[in-house]
Design a protein that fits this description.
This protein has 15 helices and 17 strands. It is α/β, with parallel strands linked by helices and 401 residues long. The chain folds into two domains: 165 residues, Rossmann fold, CATH 3.40.50; 200 residues, 3-Layer(aba) Sandwich (Rossmann fold). The longest helix is centred in the N-terminal third of the chain and has 15 residues.
Length: 401
Protein backbone atom coordinates (compact mmCIF):
# COMPACT_ATOMS: atom_id res chain seq x y z
CA UNK A 1 0.00 0.00 0.00
CA UNK A 2 1.23 3.51 -0.84
CA UNK A 3 2.17 5.76 2.06
CA UNK A 4 0.14 8.58 0.51
CA UNK A 5 -3.44 8.97 -0.69
CA UNK A 6 -4.21 8.99 -4.42
CA UNK A 7 -7.24 9.91 -6.52
CA UNK A 8 -8.51 6.37 -5.84
CA UNK A 9 -9.17 7.49 -2.24
CA UNK A 10 -11.53 10.31 -3.26
CA UNK A 11 -15.23 9.79 -2.66
CA UNK A 12 -17.98 11.72 -4.46
CA UNK A 13 -16.40 15.03 -5.50
CA UNK A 14 -19.16 16.46 -7.71
CA UNK A 15 -19.40 20.20 -7.00
CA UNK A 16 -16.30 20.16 -4.77
CA UNK A 17 -13.40 22.51 -5.52
CA UNK A 18 -10.08 20.76 -6.22
CA UNK A 19 -6.92 22.84 -5.81
CA UNK A 20 -4.46 21.06 -8.10
CA UNK A 21 -0.74 21.94 -8.07
CA UNK A 22 0.71 21.35 -11.53
CA UNK A 23 3.97 22.37 -13.22
CA UNK A 24 3.44 24.83 -16.07
CA UNK A 25 6.98 26.21 -16.02
CA UNK A 26 7.48 25.48 -19.71
CA UNK A 27 9.89 26.82 -22.35
CA UNK A 28 8.56 29.73 -24.40
CA UNK A 29 9.49 31.36 -27.68
CA UNK A 30 7.86 34.57 -28.86
CA UNK A 31 5.03 34.25 -26.32
CA UNK A 32 4.20 30.66 -27.31
CA UNK A 33 4.94 27.47 -25.36
CA UNK A 34 7.45 25.29 -27.29
CA UNK A 35 7.20 22.09 -25.21
CA UNK A 36 3.91 20.98 -23.61
CA UNK A 37 5.30 17.83 -21.90
CA UNK A 38 4.42 19.11 -18.44
CA UNK A 39 0.76 19.87 -19.26
CA UNK A 40 0.48 16.47 -20.92
CA UNK A 41 1.81 14.87 -17.72
CA UNK A 42 -0.88 16.61 -15.66
CA UNK A 43 -3.73 15.99 -18.14
CA UNK A 44 -4.87 12.58 -16.76
CA UNK A 45 -5.31 14.04 -13.25
CA UNK A 46 -7.08 17.22 -14.44
CA UNK A 47 -9.48 15.33 -16.71
CA UNK A 48 -10.24 12.62 -14.15
CA UNK A 49 -11.23 15.26 -11.58
CA UNK A 50 -13.26 17.24 -14.14
CA UNK A 51 -15.10 14.12 -15.33
CA UNK A 52 -15.98 13.32 -11.71
CA UNK A 53 -17.70 16.72 -11.53
CA UNK A 54 -15.17 18.68 -9.47
CA UNK A 55 -14.46 22.34 -10.15
CA UNK A 56 -10.73 22.14 -10.91
CA UNK A 57 -8.49 25.11 -10.01
CA UNK A 58 -4.92 24.80 -11.28
CA UNK A 59 -2.09 26.25 -9.21
CA UNK A 60 1.31 26.81 -10.82
CA UNK A 61 4.38 29.03 -10.87
CA UNK A 62 6.02 30.48 -13.95
CA UNK A 63 9.56 31.88 -13.88
CA UNK A 64 11.01 33.74 -10.89
CA UNK A 65 9.07 36.97 -10.31
CA UNK A 66 10.32 37.15 -6.68
CA UNK A 67 7.01 37.99 -5.04
CA UNK A 68 6.08 40.78 -7.50
CA UNK A 69 3.47 40.89 -10.25
CA UNK A 70 5.21 40.82 -13.62
CA UNK A 71 3.11 40.68 -16.80
CA UNK A 72 5.82 38.75 -18.70
CA UNK A 73 5.58 35.97 -16.11
CA UNK A 74 1.81 35.65 -15.88
CA UNK A 75 0.62 32.04 -16.02
CA UNK A 76 -1.90 33.32 -18.60
CA UNK A 77 0.99 33.02 -21.11
CA UNK A 78 0.49 29.24 -20.91
CA UNK A 79 -3.31 29.34 -21.24
CA UNK A 80 -3.45 28.56 -24.98
CA UNK A 81 -1.15 25.54 -24.56
CA UNK A 82 -3.15 24.27 -21.57
CA UNK A 83 -6.46 24.57 -23.48
CA UNK A 84 -4.95 22.87 -26.52
CA UNK A 85 -3.61 19.89 -24.57
CA UNK A 86 -6.78 19.48 -22.48
CA UNK A 87 -9.09 20.08 -25.47
CA UNK A 88 -11.19 22.23 -23.15
CA UNK A 89 -11.86 25.88 -22.44
CA UNK A 90 -10.07 27.02 -19.27
CA UNK A 91 -11.02 30.13 -17.29
CA UNK A 92 -8.04 32.33 -16.37
CA UNK A 93 -8.38 33.79 -12.86
CA UNK A 94 -5.90 36.65 -12.17
CA UNK A 95 -5.60 35.92 -8.41
CA UNK A 96 -4.85 32.90 -6.21
CA UNK A 97 -7.09 33.76 -3.24
CA UNK A 98 -9.73 36.23 -2.10
CA UNK A 99 -13.08 37.40 -3.51
CA UNK A 100 -12.07 37.21 -7.22
CA UNK A 101 -11.34 33.48 -6.84
CA UNK A 102 -14.50 33.00 -4.77
CA UNK A 103 -16.63 34.70 -7.48
CA UNK A 104 -14.95 32.64 -10.21
CA UNK A 105 -15.72 29.42 -8.34
CA UNK A 106 -19.35 30.57 -8.28
CA UNK A 107 -19.32 31.03 -12.08
CA UNK A 108 -17.62 27.69 -12.84
CA UNK A 109 -19.92 24.73 -13.36
CA UNK A 110 -19.18 21.23 -12.13
CA UNK A 111 -16.42 19.76 -14.31
CA UNK A 112 -15.08 23.19 -15.38
CA UNK A 113 -11.41 24.13 -15.11
CA UNK A 114 -9.84 27.38 -13.93
CA UNK A 115 -6.20 28.49 -14.04
CA UNK A 116 -5.07 30.67 -11.13
CA UNK A 117 -2.35 33.31 -11.47
CA UNK A 118 1.38 32.65 -10.86
CA UNK A 119 1.69 31.62 -7.21
CA UNK A 120 5.11 33.32 -7.05
CA UNK A 121 3.57 36.78 -7.62
CA UNK A 122 2.98 36.65 -3.85
CA UNK A 123 5.95 36.60 -1.44
CA UNK A 124 4.01 34.19 0.81
CA UNK A 125 4.49 31.39 -1.76
CA UNK A 126 8.25 30.94 -1.51
CA UNK A 127 8.23 31.89 2.19
CA UNK A 128 5.67 29.08 2.72
CA UNK A 129 3.65 31.55 4.78
CA UNK A 130 0.91 29.63 6.65
CA UNK A 131 -1.53 32.56 6.30
CA UNK A 132 -0.99 32.71 2.53
CA UNK A 133 -1.58 28.94 2.29
CA UNK A 134 -4.73 29.28 4.43
CA UNK A 135 -6.00 32.08 2.15
CA UNK A 136 -5.60 29.83 -0.93
CA UNK A 137 -7.12 26.86 0.91
CA UNK A 138 -10.21 28.91 1.84
CA UNK A 139 -11.55 28.50 -1.72
CA UNK A 140 -10.84 24.77 -2.01
CA UNK A 141 -12.31 21.56 -0.58
CA UNK A 142 -9.29 19.32 -1.18
CA UNK A 143 -5.73 19.51 -2.52
CA UNK A 144 -4.04 17.42 -5.22
CA UNK A 145 -0.29 17.64 -5.83
CA UNK A 146 0.65 16.53 -9.35
CA UNK A 147 3.94 18.47 -9.61
CA UNK A 148 6.80 16.18 -8.58
CA UNK A 149 9.21 18.53 -10.36
CA UNK A 150 8.40 21.21 -7.74
CA UNK A 151 8.29 18.77 -4.78
CA UNK A 152 11.80 19.70 -3.59
CA UNK A 153 10.52 23.19 -2.77
CA UNK A 154 8.84 23.82 0.59
CA UNK A 155 6.45 26.46 -0.79
CA UNK A 156 2.86 27.27 0.15
CA UNK A 157 1.39 25.64 -2.97
CA UNK A 158 3.66 22.55 -2.84
CA UNK A 159 3.81 21.88 0.90
CA UNK A 160 1.73 24.35 2.93
CA UNK A 161 -1.64 23.40 1.42
CA UNK A 162 -1.08 19.71 2.27
CA UNK A 163 -1.06 20.67 5.96
CA UNK A 164 -4.49 22.32 5.71
CA UNK A 165 -6.71 20.43 3.25
CA UNK A 166 -7.37 16.71 2.66
CA UNK A 167 -4.48 15.90 0.31
CA UNK A 168 -3.89 13.44 -2.53
CA UNK A 169 -1.20 12.60 -5.07
CA UNK A 170 -2.23 13.18 -8.67
CA UNK A 171 -1.67 10.45 -11.26
CA UNK A 172 1.70 11.81 -12.50
CA UNK A 173 2.96 12.26 -8.93
CA UNK A 174 1.75 8.77 -7.99
CA UNK A 175 3.48 7.22 -11.02
CA UNK A 176 6.71 9.07 -10.24
CA UNK A 177 6.76 8.05 -6.57
CA UNK A 178 6.02 4.39 -7.35
CA UNK A 179 8.78 4.35 -10.01
CA UNK A 180 11.33 6.00 -7.74
CA UNK A 181 10.53 3.68 -4.84
CA UNK A 182 11.09 0.69 -7.11
CA UNK A 183 14.46 2.11 -8.21
CA UNK A 184 16.19 3.01 -4.94
CA UNK A 185 13.96 2.65 -1.87
CA UNK A 186 13.04 -0.97 -2.39
CA UNK A 187 14.72 -2.11 -5.62
CA UNK A 188 15.19 -5.50 -7.18
CA UNK A 189 18.92 -6.16 -6.86
CA UNK A 190 21.58 -5.92 -8.21
CA UNK A 191 21.22 -2.19 -8.91
CA UNK A 192 23.39 -0.17 -11.32
CA UNK A 193 23.53 3.61 -11.37
CA UNK A 194 24.88 5.67 -14.26
CA UNK A 195 26.00 9.13 -13.18
CA UNK A 196 27.39 11.37 -15.91
CA UNK A 197 27.74 15.05 -16.58
CA UNK A 198 30.48 17.63 -16.59
CA UNK A 199 31.35 18.17 -12.97
CA UNK A 200 31.83 16.03 -9.86
CA UNK A 201 31.09 19.13 -7.75
CA UNK A 202 27.46 19.22 -8.93
CA UNK A 203 26.87 15.52 -8.16
CA UNK A 204 28.91 14.96 -4.98
CA UNK A 205 25.90 14.30 -2.76
CA UNK A 206 24.45 11.95 -5.40
CA UNK A 207 27.65 9.89 -5.57
CA UNK A 208 28.01 9.72 -1.79
CA UNK A 209 24.42 8.51 -1.39
CA UNK A 210 24.58 5.98 -4.23
CA UNK A 211 27.77 4.13 -3.24
CA UNK A 212 25.95 2.84 -0.17
CA UNK A 213 22.82 1.86 -2.10
CA UNK A 214 23.86 0.31 -5.43
CA UNK A 215 26.07 -2.60 -6.43
CA UNK A 216 27.48 -0.90 -9.58
CA UNK A 217 28.26 2.81 -9.93
CA UNK A 218 29.13 3.80 -13.50
CA UNK A 219 30.74 7.22 -13.86
CA UNK A 220 30.80 9.00 -17.22
CA UNK A 221 31.11 12.46 -18.73
CA UNK A 222 33.65 15.01 -17.54
CA UNK A 223 33.20 13.62 -14.02
CA UNK A 224 35.02 10.42 -15.00
CA UNK A 225 38.13 12.48 -15.82
CA UNK A 226 38.35 13.73 -12.24
CA UNK A 227 38.18 10.13 -10.98
CA UNK A 228 40.82 9.02 -13.52
CA UNK A 229 43.08 11.90 -12.40
CA UNK A 230 42.54 10.79 -8.78
CA UNK A 231 43.95 7.40 -9.81
CA UNK A 232 47.08 9.10 -11.09
CA UNK A 233 46.13 9.02 -14.78
CA UNK A 234 47.19 11.99 -16.94
CA UNK A 235 44.00 13.25 -18.60
CA UNK A 236 45.72 15.88 -20.79
CA UNK A 237 43.53 18.89 -21.64
CA UNK A 238 40.32 17.13 -20.56
CA UNK A 239 37.68 18.88 -18.49
CA UNK A 240 38.74 17.90 -14.96
CA UNK A 241 38.32 19.23 -11.42
CA UNK A 242 41.85 18.55 -10.21
CA UNK A 243 41.08 20.15 -6.83
CA UNK A 244 38.51 17.40 -6.19
CA UNK A 245 40.76 14.37 -6.69
CA UNK A 246 40.92 13.90 -2.90
CA UNK A 247 37.12 13.80 -2.75
CA UNK A 248 37.03 11.36 -5.66
CA UNK A 249 39.45 9.08 -3.80
CA UNK A 250 37.27 9.26 -0.66
CA UNK A 251 34.23 8.22 -2.74
CA UNK A 252 36.20 5.31 -4.24
CA UNK A 253 37.22 4.20 -0.72
CA UNK A 254 33.59 4.42 0.41
CA UNK A 255 32.52 2.31 -2.56
CA UNK A 256 35.11 -0.35 -1.66
CA UNK A 257 33.86 -0.50 1.92
CA UNK A 258 30.22 -0.74 0.79
CA UNK A 259 30.92 -3.52 -1.72
CA UNK A 260 29.98 -1.24 -4.62
CA UNK A 261 31.94 -1.69 -7.85
CA UNK A 262 32.86 1.71 -9.26
CA UNK A 263 33.27 1.59 -13.05
CA UNK A 264 35.55 4.02 -14.87
CA UNK A 265 36.38 3.80 -18.60
CA UNK A 266 39.63 2.07 -19.59
CA UNK A 267 39.45 3.12 -23.22
CA UNK A 268 38.34 6.59 -24.28
CA UNK A 269 37.61 8.73 -27.34
CA UNK A 270 40.00 11.68 -27.52
CA UNK A 271 40.61 14.67 -29.76
CA UNK A 272 42.85 17.74 -29.83
CA UNK A 273 39.85 19.98 -30.44
CA UNK A 274 36.22 19.87 -29.37
CA UNK A 275 34.38 19.93 -32.70
CA UNK A 276 32.12 17.63 -34.69
CA UNK A 277 34.04 14.74 -36.32
CA UNK A 278 37.51 16.29 -35.82
CA UNK A 279 40.53 15.09 -37.82
CA UNK A 280 42.45 14.38 -34.60
CA UNK A 281 39.81 11.94 -33.32
CA UNK A 282 41.12 8.62 -31.99
CA UNK A 283 40.36 5.87 -29.48
CA UNK A 284 43.03 4.97 -26.94
CA UNK A 285 43.68 3.41 -23.54
CA UNK A 286 43.24 5.90 -20.68
CA UNK A 287 46.99 5.67 -20.00
CA UNK A 288 47.77 6.88 -23.54
CA UNK A 289 46.03 10.28 -23.53
CA UNK A 290 48.49 12.87 -24.86
CA UNK A 291 49.09 16.20 -23.10
CA UNK A 292 47.34 18.12 -25.92
CA UNK A 293 44.30 15.80 -26.13
CA UNK A 294 40.98 15.83 -24.31
CA UNK A 295 38.72 12.89 -23.38
CA UNK A 296 35.28 13.46 -24.92
CA UNK A 297 33.58 10.06 -24.68
CA UNK A 298 33.89 6.54 -23.31
CA UNK A 299 35.54 4.05 -25.67
CA UNK A 300 33.88 1.05 -27.39
CA UNK A 301 35.51 -1.65 -25.20
CA UNK A 302 34.30 0.04 -22.00
CA UNK A 303 30.83 0.45 -23.54
CA UNK A 304 30.69 -3.29 -24.27
CA UNK A 305 31.79 -4.14 -20.73
CA UNK A 306 29.24 -1.74 -19.23
CA UNK A 307 26.52 -3.26 -21.42
CA UNK A 308 27.44 -6.63 -19.86
CA UNK A 309 27.07 -5.06 -16.38
CA UNK A 310 23.53 -3.94 -17.31
CA UNK A 311 22.74 -7.55 -18.28
CA UNK A 312 23.64 -8.77 -14.76
CA UNK A 313 21.44 -6.14 -13.06
CA UNK A 314 17.71 -5.99 -12.29
CA UNK A 315 17.45 -2.22 -11.72
CA UNK A 316 19.09 0.79 -13.38
CA UNK A 317 19.02 4.45 -12.32
CA UNK A 318 20.44 6.89 -14.88
CA UNK A 319 21.35 10.57 -14.55
CA UNK A 320 23.69 12.30 -17.00
CA UNK A 321 25.35 11.45 -20.33
CA UNK A 322 28.53 9.37 -20.79
CA UNK A 323 30.24 11.90 -23.09
CA UNK A 324 29.78 15.23 -24.85
CA UNK A 325 26.68 13.75 -26.51
CA UNK A 326 25.44 16.97 -28.15
CA UNK A 327 28.36 16.79 -30.61
CA UNK A 328 28.89 13.81 -32.92
CA UNK A 329 30.60 11.37 -32.67
CA UNK A 330 30.90 11.92 -28.90
CA UNK A 331 27.34 10.66 -28.47
CA UNK A 332 28.20 7.06 -29.34
CA UNK A 333 28.74 5.67 -25.82
CA UNK A 334 25.57 7.30 -24.47
CA UNK A 335 23.49 6.08 -27.43
CA UNK A 336 24.90 2.52 -27.35
CA UNK A 337 24.34 2.11 -23.58
CA UNK A 338 20.89 3.70 -23.78
CA UNK A 339 19.93 1.21 -26.49
CA UNK A 340 21.21 -1.72 -24.41
CA UNK A 341 19.23 -0.53 -21.36
CA UNK A 342 16.13 0.00 -23.52
CA UNK A 343 16.34 -3.50 -25.02
CA UNK A 344 16.68 -5.07 -21.56
CA UNK A 345 13.73 -2.97 -20.32
CA UNK A 346 11.53 -4.08 -23.23
CA UNK A 347 12.49 -7.68 -22.40
CA UNK A 348 11.46 -6.93 -18.80
CA UNK A 349 14.75 -8.15 -17.35
CA UNK A 350 15.63 -4.59 -16.23
CA UNK A 351 13.68 -1.84 -14.46
CA UNK A 352 15.15 1.40 -15.84
CA UNK A 353 14.49 4.80 -14.30
CA UNK A 354 16.10 7.94 -15.75
CA UNK A 355 15.79 11.63 -15.02
CA UNK A 356 17.29 15.09 -15.39
CA UNK A 357 17.19 17.45 -18.38
CA UNK A 358 20.40 16.30 -20.11
CA UNK A 359 19.49 12.67 -19.56
CA UNK A 360 16.04 12.99 -21.12
CA UNK A 361 17.57 14.88 -24.08
CA UNK A 362 20.21 12.15 -24.50
CA UNK A 363 17.64 9.32 -24.38
CA UNK A 364 15.42 11.16 -26.87
CA UNK A 365 18.50 11.62 -29.09
CA UNK A 366 19.10 7.84 -28.88
CA UNK A 367 15.44 7.28 -29.79
CA UNK A 368 14.77 5.07 -26.75
CA UNK A 369 13.13 7.33 -24.15
CA UNK A 370 9.77 5.57 -24.55
CA UNK A 371 11.39 2.16 -23.98
CA UNK A 372 12.72 2.96 -20.49
CA UNK A 373 10.51 1.79 -17.62
CA UNK A 374 10.16 5.36 -16.36
CA UNK A 375 11.51 8.76 -17.37
CA UNK A 376 11.28 11.59 -14.85
CA UNK A 377 10.84 15.05 -16.33
CA UNK A 378 11.96 16.60 -13.05
CA UNK A 379 15.40 18.20 -12.82
CA UNK A 380 16.20 19.43 -9.31
CA UNK A 381 13.69 17.16 -7.58
CA UNK A 382 15.08 14.05 -9.30
CA UNK A 383 18.63 15.04 -8.35
CA UNK A 384 17.65 15.65 -4.71
CA UNK A 385 15.90 12.27 -4.64
CA UNK A 386 19.14 10.68 -5.93
CA UNK A 387 20.96 12.49 -3.13
CA UNK A 388 18.70 10.73 -0.63
CA UNK A 389 17.07 13.96 0.53
CA UNK A 390 13.50 14.23 1.76
CA UNK A 391 11.36 16.20 -0.69
CA UNK A 392 9.07 18.58 1.27
CA UNK A 393 6.14 18.24 -1.16
CA UNK A 394 6.26 14.44 -0.89
CA UNK A 395 6.81 14.40 2.88
CA UNK A 396 3.74 16.65 3.33
CA UNK A 397 1.60 14.31 1.21
CA UNK A 398 2.68 11.33 3.28
CA UNK A 399 2.07 13.18 6.54
CA UNK A 400 -1.44 14.04 5.35
CA UNK A 401 -2.30 10.36 4.95
Amino acid sequence: MASFKTLDDLGDIAGKVALVRVDLNMPMDGGAVTDTTRVEAAKPTIMELAKAGAKVLLLAHFGRPKGQRNSTMSVSMTLDAVEQVLGREVMFIPEVHGPVVEQSVGILRNGDIGLLENTRFWAGEEANDPQFAADIAANGDFYVNDAFSAAHRAHASTEGLARILPSFAGRAMEKELVALASALDNPQQPVAAVVGGAKVSSKLAVLENLVARVQHLIIGGGMANTFLAARGIDVGKSLCEHDLTGTANAIMDKADQAGCTLHLPYDVVVSKEFAANPASLRVCNVHEVAADEMILDVGPQAVEALGDVFKTCKTLVWNGPMGAFETEPFDEATVALAKTAAALSIGESLISVAGGGDTVAALNHAGVASDFTYISTAGGAFLEWMEGKDLPGVTALKAAN
